[in-house]
Design brief:
- This protein is α/β, with parallel strands linked by helices and 275 residues long.
- Helix content is 48%, strand content 11%.
- The chain has twelve helices and eight strands.
- Helix 11 links the parallel strand 6 and strand 7.
- The longest helix has 22 residues.
- It is globular, with a radius of gyration of 20 Å.
- 36% of the residues are buried.
- About 3% of the residues have low confidence.
Length: 275
């Protein structure tokens, strides 16, 4: 394999840097609930949502909460699509605020969003298995020493950067990442593979004097990451990280010509591929 000349490395987060059962779900709605049920149940109990949920629905509280959240996400996506936004994204704290309001909790939307953020942080804390992929930190430190700029272009939420800081450690996080090269879906209102998210990334690269033809994007999703990068920024190289959370997307990509510049299964392989 020929080495790829690299001045900048842009990365997906979930399924690429961070592994987690919560982030890896790509199945039907019922499968999603099965994975999330124990965490939903604990969240309902922690924040005293049992009674409001019982008043609102005949379903078990954790199921009712899951369905109400799904409904709010669907409504938010529908509004965005009506405005012409492809692959819309939500701000999860706003989804929680609307759900809490439906349950009769009082307070301004700003107050409910703050409570929603607290609930999200608690919910995420239950995922003890969330961790960095083996070899990730060492590989990125090695690449950074070569003078490569490292950024994030990810479908993410307000808690993603705090998670990265916790998992890498504040010192190594600062050594590795350049936040000037971060593009986060929740801030933009749309997610990968929306072309605008990659346009934003290119604009940030150019402000640093970096060019797409010496930029590598790596993620675990053939549609959102590989197809998204190569279709919207043809000069950019794209690597598929074939992790335990890899998403091949054969159905969605049927008839589309898309091929990653490399497929890696271990982080230790990445420094060997980049020049």
């Amino acid at each position: 394999m020929n080495k790829i000349k690299t001045s900048a490395l842009l990365l997906d987060v979930y399924g690429t840097i961070i592994t987690s059962t919560a982030s890896s779900n790509d199945g039907p709605k019922q499968d999603s609930f099965k994975k999330m049920k124990p965490y939903m149940a604990k969240t309902v109990k922690k924040f005293g949502l049992g009674q409001p949920l019982k008043k609102a629905s005949r379903k078990k509280p954790e199921r009712a909460l899951f369905d109400m959240m799904e409904e709010e996400i669907v409504k938010s996506h529908a509004k965005s699509k009506a405005r012409g936004i492809k692959w819309p994204e939500v701000r999860i704290e706003k989804i929680w605020a609307r759900t809490l309001k439906r349950l009769g909790l009082r307070g301004s939307m700003a107050l409910l969003e703050k409570k929603g953020a607290s609930i999200v942080n608690y919910y995420n804390s239950l995922h003890k298995q969330m961790k960095l992929y083996p070899g990730c930190k060492n590989a990125l430190l090695k690449i950074k020493k070569r003078g490569v700029w490292i950024g994030i272009v990810s479908n993410s939420q307000f808690y993603t950067v705090p998670q990265l800081k916790e998992l890498f450690g504040a010192s190594d996080y600062r050594k590795i990442f350049s936040e000037e090269l971060f593009v986060r879906s929740y801030e933009e209102g749309f997610s990968k593979p929306n072309p605008k998210i990659f346009s934003k990334a290119v604009a940030k690269l150019k402000r640093k004097g970096l060019t797409p033809d010496e930029t590598v994007y790596m993620g675990n999703d053939m549609l959102s990451d590989v197809f998204g990068a190569k279709k919207n920024v043809p000069e950019m190289k794209a690597i598929l990280f074939a992790s335990d959370c890899v998403k091949w997307r054969k159905k969605e990509l049927k008839g589309k010509r898309v091929k990653p510049d490399a497929i890696l299964r271990k982080w230790s392989e990445l420094p060997k591929v980049l020049a």
